[in-house]
Structures are given as C-alpha cells and as structure tokens.
Specification:
The structure holds two protein chains of two kinds. Chain A is an alpha+beta fold. Chain A has helices spanning 55-64, 80-83, 107-121, 167-175, 191-194, 245-249, 507-530, 542-554; strands spanning 10-20, 25-36, 66-75, 93-100, 134-135, 155-160, 199-209, 226-238, 242-244, 262-268, 278-281, 287-292, 295-303, 319-322, 334-341, 347-356, 363-371, 375-386, 389-390, 395-399, 408-416, 420-430, 446-448, 452-458, 485-491, 495-497. The chains are: A alpha+beta, B mainly alpha. Chain B: Residues 1-25 form the signal peptide.
C-alpha cells in the first residue's frame, strides 16, 4: 500500500499537538489532512474512485456544488483568557458555514438539503437549521481557500448553540478518516476519555487549495485546484502533575497510519527550554520551530513513521512530569465577552465587550452578531464606547429580522484603541410567541448564538508567508497574507434569554372566554338592533277585569 | 366660553409639559397599555434610524407606520413633543366646534336646558384633555394622538358640511389605520340628512350624492397611497402596515382581545379566527346604519367605540377618543343603568393593568392569565358602556316621543 510520489493524486497527513499549560492542563489538538488533486465541479467528469478522501463528503460536495464547507461540533466554551488562543476556534454547539459555487441557482434549496444530508452523515440534529437561523454575513466569513469571487449571496452561516456533542457524533466522524480508528493517531480517540474533557471540539473543514509541490507559493493559482479536507479535534483536559498518553487517552500509540505520508506528535516545550518546568520522556532529538499565532514556539517532534520512535516496547507512551510551578502564559491580544443586562421579561440589553491587550497598536475588528427574530433589536440604541468615549464604527451592515423568516444580522467594523476595552450595547425587546413555537422546556430559555469577532492582529514576531511541506499543519491552516499580522477569530459566549410564556394549559379556555366577551358585545347589539319599544298599558287587577267583562255584556262604560 | 376653554388648555398643556420633562416619560413610553407595535414612538425612531442606515424601514418587522408618518417625523423629530401637544389642541378645537354645531341639529330636544347645552363643549374638552388616558398617550408620544386628531378633524369637517374636506380627512384616517373605513357610512348619512336627500335606494339623488362622496373619498385614498409609493419607491409598506393590521403576527400583550387568543390558537384555525375577528369590526356598520340613520352623530360615536374595542392593537388612546364623546349625551345621565358598576369596573381594571403586568413580567409570581383576565374584564366593561349609552338613548327618544312611562323588557 505504498504511495509512489510520482503518481500521487491524494495524500494524507496526521499530527497531534500537545501543549501543556502551567496549571497541569493539557491542550491536545489532532489534525488529519487529506489533499486530493481533483475538481468535483468539472462538467462531464463524475468522480467515482475515492481512495483517501471520504466518499460521503465527496458526493455531498459534487451534488450541492459546494466550494467550501466548514462544520464544527463543540462541547464546552473555550476560555481564551486562561487557556490562550486555540489553533482553530469554534463556538459552543454546532456551527456550519458553506460557500457555494457561483453556478448554483437556488442557494437556499441547496442549503436546506445540504443541512439535512450532513445531519445524517454526522448523526446530529442539523436539520434544525432553517431560514430562521441562517444568515449571509457580508464581510466576516471570507473563503479560507482559493477563490476570487466573494459574492456573499453564495455564503450561508448558521449555528445551533443548543447542540450537544457525544459519542454518536464522534463515531461517524472517525469513519471519515482513511485509517478509521484502527491505526495511527486516531486510536487515541476513545470516547470515554475524550468526553471527560472540559472542552471538546470536532470539526471538518473542506476547501479548495492550489497544488503545492516542493514549496510553491500559496498565492499562485493553477488551473485545477485540489481539495483539502481538514479534520481536527481539539480537547482540553485537566490533569494532575503527571500525565501520560495512556492516562489521558487510555491508549498508547503503536504505529502510524500506513496510508499517511506524515504522522507526527508535537509537544510544545517553549516554556521549558532547560527542562526546569517539566520533564518529557521518552526524549527525542527532533525539534521544530514554528511561528504560531504571532508567537515563536519550539516543539519536540515524535515522528511515528520512524520505527525507532516506538522504542523497545513498540509503543509510544509520552510521559510528562511537572517539576516546578509557574510559567506565565502569553496573554492573548484579542479577547471578547458577551452578556445580557436588564431585568424582567420585557426588555434587555446585549453587551459585547472586546479587549485589545496590545500595548501600543490599534487594529480594527469585525464583529458579527446574529440574533434570533424573537428578540427585537433596536438599532437606534446601538452604542459603542472605548475608554468611556464614543467610538463610531466605520462600517455597519444591518439586516433587520423578519418575524418567523430570518434573524437579525449585525456586522460592524470597529477600531480598537491600544490596551483598551470596547463595549458594544444594543437594546432588545422580547416577543411573546405562539404557544406551539416554544420548546418543550420553555423556562430553560432560548439560546442566542455566539458573536464572532474576526481580526488581523498585529504580530510581535514576523510571520512567514511561504508555505512549505515541513511546517506543521496547525500553523498553516489559515493562509497568511502578510508578515506583520495573523488572522484570529474569537467566539463569545452564547446567551440564554428567557421569554415571557403564555399558559400552555389554556388554549381551549382562552378561546371560550374571548369568544364569550365578543358574544356579549354581539348579543347586546343584536338585542338593541332588533328591539322595538311599545307603549304598554298597565294591566288591571283581576277583580276589575272581571267587572269589565260583566260591564261589557251589560253595555255600560268600562272601568280603567 | 373662551375664558374657561383657554384656562383648560393652559392646564392641559402644563400637565403634559411637566410630564414630558420628568422621568416618568420614559416609563410611560414603555407601557404596553399605552403603546402598541403600530404606534409606539420607539419604533418610529427605529424606522428613522433604519432609514439613515440605508435600510428600508419595512425590511424588518419593527416598523409599521405609514410612509407619510416617517417623512413627517423626519423633519420634526426634534420637536416631536410639540407636534403631539399641538395635535391635542387641534382635537380640542374640533370637539368644541362639534358641540357648538350640534346645537342647531338637536334643538328639538327640549329636555335639555339651554344652560346644560352651553357647557357641553367645555365638558367634552375637559373629558378629552384631562383624561388620564389621553395624557398618558400624549406623554408616551404614541402616534395614536395624531390618529385621534385626524378623526376629530374629519368629524368637524363633516359637521360643518364640507364634503370634500371630510372625504380627504377620512381617506387620511383610513390610510393611517384601516378601521376608520367604517366611518364612511355615518358621514354619508349625515350629509344626506343635511342636504335633505331621503335615504331611498330608488332615488337617483341618493345615488348621485353617494357616488360623489365615494369618489372624493376613494380618490383621496388613491392619491395618498400613490404619494407614499413615490416617496418610498416601493410597495413594501402595504404588507408591512395593512398586512400587519389584518394578520396580527405580533402578539405583544395589549388591552385588547387579540393577543392571547392568537397566542393560544390552534394552528389549524388561525386563518379562520383572524377573519372572524376582523370581520367583527366591519360587520356592525350596515345594521347600525340602518337602525340609526336619523342619528348619524350617534352612529359615529358607536362606530368609533366598536373600532376602539375590537381593533387588532388597541391602546388607551383609542378608548379616550370615544369617551370624549360621552358628555355630548349628558341628558342621558339620569337614565343610565348600571353606570356606577361599569365605571367601577373600568377604573379597577385601569388600576390593575400595571399591577398584574409587573407581577407577570418582573416579579414572576403571576402568569399571563392574570393580565388576560383583566383584559377581558376591561373590554367587557367597555362593551357595557356603549351598549348602555345606546339603550338609554333609545329609551329616552321613545320616552320623549310618547311622553308616557313605559315598561321595557328586561334583557
């Protein structure tokens, strides 16, 4: 099953990055990338032979003319301030954004079918995605792969903050890998340990890239793009002072995936140059340096394609023992929070707070908010303040919601002053819904998806714009266009908002009572419209009437 | 007459000005009893902000005012408070003129002493200007006040006998909210009565005048709608304004009967009951016109009362409109049955509305049924007010005609 370099049309790479943090926590990021020289959308050429690229997704791409697909399932919320920036961020719940090809005529129809098909592939309830929670961001989600046409009519974005991730979602995800969960790094993905983490996210990113062989520049566009599918799992585990692969994942590594051209484990040892903070065993002579998220990091590399990595026991069980305490984490330069203010069930305010921790550089950020229609935003109450002064956004794109049809979309370009906190406030009113529109547990509340803050953050270290084969996958996920800044996307917390509820046991009673009041009105009207008034003589008592009867017979005048 | 009226005006304007400047203004603007999604000031400001952002105000579901209203406020937004006080003043003027005009029409009713009749315009003015409902509506800057002013101007022009102006103003009122369409019939009857044209379907003079008036009305309506189209550039406002009034998609609680009914409606029957409820407003026009064709002013009162109770988004401003008419029939006070009970019901409900709203929305200890119950009772009380007035009017007329006491079937 060897892969000859000359006739290679697809290749598969896998890697695991482990970043130990000072508090004994571990950030583990698995990345599996398949690169395939093919064009799904070419006319007349139906792709039928799939080798490393998952067939289910390939068929989905060609059927719905998808150019880029990004889907992620996340359990937990990434605490940027404590844990740093993740390599590939994702919001809590499920998130799906797709760029369709220009040739698609009915994007909404394709989107609806695509969500249903994906919901079947991933065993998730993505079929809840419909027009009431889909938006078309105009600036926030530019294509990550190749593409010059950026008409945002072909972009669709939706989140399901309430979606839960569990073993059922992990199993079909693992099936997309060429080796499955039988060989390579994927053997570590056992659900009983994986879901014990504080944060777990699994994602699939498919995009067209240009063919790169032997260090071609990313910017060169060739005629036939390749498709790159990137599967990644991020998880964040709390552990004690000593951890090992076995303790973390209840497995050790025994071999690389035979189909992979490269299979590596990177352990971040930047904070531990002399070995005073922790001790890593088995020791490895391989070292790698990379600039990741504006920071130069050093990694110990374990190459699983080499037999000597596994040692005598033929299994690799990384062991890390903490020696000292401390180690300052680099403070992330961009950070955002969001919360709901106000009391009662009538009105409220959404506050989004964005922190710029750069000591002297200001940079603009793009804030995107998608609020469901039942929270009616009032855009005239939008205020943006930085350092207690008004900060007017230079670009505002606002699409108001249509009841029961589409949500609000608010996108703003805000310039953040250096070392400051910017607060964005907007008021909203809560609507009373029809009783069938509430979820079975209406007092739990309604979720509002995370805001997305996207920015090009100025980098302290010069980034490299050349892409080479040797660079780790995680450092090249987002294309770097210029040396002095790197792209960062921060997701805020989702919100949980209570709405006023009607009494669900009362439909029949309400109909009866309201119709009663209307009927009282109608009845009174009918009465007064058809009533005639007549003069009525007062009736005589019985005795007088009998007397009158006799008088009539006699012909004498009557009594009154 | 001028002196007490001026004094009244000064007092009314002072109260409104004081409340505008106090912190209560914001509180009152947020009350659901006073503002509705159709006429809230917050939504007018939101519509103007959307217009500034370059987005059509009708692309969302927040703004439901007519285009002429946006453009009116576009220029006067800073002076909004003054606009509302001025409209209240106009209303006053029309009401006063209305009453002074009715003298000639009703001088046969000698049961009223001249002294009583002299004070009626002042009482009407007082009933409207000093009515807490009107004051709340004005301070909240609800556009209901402007609607009331247009209807009052329409009544004034009708009573003065100017058919063209009356047609134009009625078209404007209909353009604002569809329901004043039903006021076409009483206005027509009034003109026919004034011109001594008998209401006989076989007479050509009747049809001639009817067509004239209808043409003026429909023509003005078409002109106003066309003007809105040209100002806005699209027909978006029609589903947003009139579609919204008829289909009632927004279920924000108010003092009417629609919101909870449609919140708890079975999906299958939604269309049916929407049609029934809307039909209920328009349906009484023909029978009432037939019954009250000799008393068109009373018919106007009845129609306004029906609209205020059964419209899709009523507010207390609409209630104040028909309540202002009540002193015009002050001769009926002696004969009104249950008036104490009904007024107590209305007062108690008005006091309980904010209490139960607070308990439901803020304290969380009550639920929506409490507020709904008070809504039911309030509307029941309102129905009783005007059916009692009507009943007493019928009785009094008959009594006057027959000059005898009579026994009336209990209902």
């Amino acid at each position: 099953m060897g892969i000859t370099a000359a006739a290679a049309r697809d290749e598969f790479q896998e890697e695991l990055v482990i970043r130990p943090l000072h508090s004994g926590d571990i950030y583990a990021s698995f990345q599996f990338r398949t690169l395939w020289d093919t064009d799904f959308l070419q006319e007349g050429q139906k792709v039928s032979h799939y080798r490393l690229f998952p067939k289910s997704l390939g068929q989905v791409l060609s059927k719905f003319s998808v150019r880029e697909l990004h889907i992620s399932f996340t359990q937990g919320f990434w605490r940027t301030m404590q844990w740093g920036q993740p390599f590939i961020p994702s919001p809590p719940g499920a998130e799906l954004w797709v760029w369709f090809h220009d040739t698609v005529s009915d994007v909404d129809g394709n989107w609806k079918e695509l969500t249903n098909v994906l919901s079947g592939i991933f065993c998730a309830s993505l079929n809840f995605i419909d027009l009431t929670n889909t938006v078309q961001p105009s600036a926030s989600f530019k294509p990550l792969g190749l593409g010059n046409a950026t008409d945002h009519r072909f972009l669709r974005y939706a989140t399901l903050p309430r979606e839960i991730v569990c073993t059922e979602n992990l199993t079909p995800w693992k099936k997309l890998l060429p080796c499955g969960s039988k060989a390579g790094l994927a053997v570590l993905l056992k659900s009983e340990k994986l879901f014990h983490s504080s944060f777990h996210s699994q994602a699939v990113h498919i995009r067209p890239v240009c063919q790169h062989k032997n260090g071609l520049d990313f910017a060169k566009i060739l005629d036939a793009p390749s498709f790159c599918i990137h599967l990644c799992i991020n998880c964040y585990l709390h552990l004690f002072t000593e951890w090992s692969l076995f303790k973390m994942f209840s497995r050790t590594l025994t071999e690389a995936c035979p189909l992979a051209t490269s299979s590596k484990v990177y352990v971040d040892i930047t904070d531990n140059p002399e070995g005073e903070l922790f001790e890593l065993s088995p020791a490895t002579p391989l070292l790698s340096q990379a600039v990741v998220l504006g920071d130069r990091r050093t990694y110990s590399v374990f190459d699983l394609t080499r037999a000597e990595t596994f040692g005598q026991l033929r299994s690799l069980n990384l062991l890390l023992r903490w020696k000292g305490d401390g180690g300052e984490m680099l403070r992330p330069l961009l950070h955002a929070e969001r919360y709901v203010a106000g009391f009662g069930l009538q009105t409220g305010e959404i506050h989004t707070v964005i922190y710029n921790n750069h000591p002297y550089r200001a940079f603009p950020v793009l804030l995107m908010d998608s609020v469901p229609w039942y929270l009616q935003l009032y855009i005239h109450t939008l205020t943006v303040t930085s350092k207690s002064r008004d900060n007017k956004p230079s670009y505002i794109h606002y699409q108001p919601a249509k009841d029961r049809h589409r949500p609000h979309l608010l996108e703003m370009l805000i310039q953040l002053p250096p070392h400051s906190m910017t607060e964005v406030t907007v008021q909203f009113e809560r609507a009373l819904l029809k009783w069938t529109e509430y979820t079975p547990d209406p007092n739990h509340g309604f979720y509002v998806g995370s805001s997305v803050v996207s920015a090009l953050v100025p980098s302290m270290v010069a980034m490299s714009t050349n892409f080479t084969q040797d660079q780790p996958l995680f450092s090249s996920f987002v294309p770097v266009k210029e040396e002095s800044s790197y792209f960062v996307r921060v997701y805020t917390e989702p919100l949980l908002v209570n709405l006023p509820t009607p009494d669900f046991s009362m439909p029949y009673n309400v109909i009866c009572l309201t119709c009663t009041v209307v009927a009282v009105g109608y009845g009174s009207f009918y009465n007064l419209l058809t009533r005639t008034f007549q003069v009525d003589e007062p009736s005589l008592p019985l005795a007088k009437r009998l007397a009158n009867l006799i008088r009539r017979i006699r012909g004498v005048p009557l009594l009154t | 007459m001028a002196a007490p009226l001026t004094l009244l005006l000064i007092v009314a304007v002072t109260i409104r000005a004081v409340l505008f400047r106090s912190s209560l203004a914001e509180l009152i603007s947020a009350r659901v009893e006073v503002v509705s999604p159709l006429n809230a000031w917050k939504r007018v400001v939101e519509g103007l902000a959307l217009l500034d952002l370059g987005v059509s105000p009708y692309s969302g579901d927040v703004f439901h005012e007519t285009p002429l209203m946006i453009y009116l406020f576009h220029f006067t937004v800073d002076y909004a408070e003054i606009v509302f006080i001025v409209s209240a003043y106009f209303f006053r003027k029309q009401k006063y003129a209305l009453e002074s005009d009715r003298y000639s029409a009703d001088c046969l009713e000698l049961l009223r002493s001249p002294k009583e009749m002299f004070y009626i315009p002042l009482k009407v003015a007082m009933f409207y200007l000093l009515n807490p409902f009107t004051i709340l509506s004005c301070v909240a800057k609800s556009t209901c006040g402007l609607n009331n002013a247009i209807i009052a101007l329409f009544i004034f022009c009708t009573l003065k006998g100017s058919a063209l102006l009356s047609g134009i103003l009625l078209a404007l009122a209909t353009y604002q909210s569809i329901y004043p369409l039903t006021l076409f019939a009483p206005a027509l009857l009034f003109f026919l009565q004034r011109l001594y044209i008998p209401v006989n379907l076989r007479r050509s003079s009747f049809w001639f005048f009817t067509l004239q008036y209808a043409f003026m009305y429909v023509g003005s309506l078409v002109v106003i709608t066309g003007l809105s189209f040209f100002l806005l550039g699209s027909w978006d406002f029609i589903p947003s304004v009139y579609g919204f009034i008829f289909s009632v998609p927004d279920l924000t609680p108010n003092i009417g009967l629609f919101w909870y009914f449609f919140a708890e409606m079975f999906e299958h029957f939604r269309l049916f009951f929407s049609c029934v409820f809307q039909f209920n407003v328009f349906f009484y026009t023909i029978p009432l016109s037939i019954k009250l064709k000799e008393h068109p002013v009373f018919l106007i009162f009845m129609q306004i009362a029906i609209i205020s109770i059964f419209k899709s988004y009523p507010t207390v401003g609409d209630v104040a409109l028909y309540m202002a008419f009540l002193p015009a029939w002050s001769h009926l006070y002696r004969f009104l049955r249950n008036i104490f009970l009904v007024s107590c019901v209305l007062l108690a409900c008005s006091a309980l509305f904010p209490v139960l709203w607070h308990l439901w929305i803020y304290a969380g200890s009550a639920n929506s049924n409490f507020y709904y119950a008070i809504t039911l009772l309030f509307n029941f009380g309102q129905v009783k007010v005007f059916t009692t007035t009507w009943l007493t009017n019928c009785e009094w007329k008959n009594r006057w005609r027959n000059k005898v006491s009579l026994f009336i079937n209990l209902y």
